[in-house]
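Entry type: protein chain
Record version: 2
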Amino acid sequence: MKPFDTHAHLYDKAFDRDRDEVLSRTLEAVSFVVIPSENYETGLKALHLAETYSPVYAALGIHPHETKNADEETLKKIGDLAESSPKVKAIGEIGLDYH
């Protein structure tokens, strides 16, 4: 079994010019990729990529740095988005990024 990547923010603007190429190379090396979101907007992007590439899945949630912008309506929208597709495989963004 090939390894898998459980935390790849492939919707990031750094990949705008070569996202397809990066994903193609990545999927040669790993069996699947999970793209975690940081907020609702990136959740939409993560889900779009998951629905575009079959071995890619989404994890929807709020990064700790984004909690100041999260309210009940946002959490409901994320929940509704999670229920909208079988490509969502996890809820949450642990967010132990120290940068």
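Comment: The chain has three helices and three strands.
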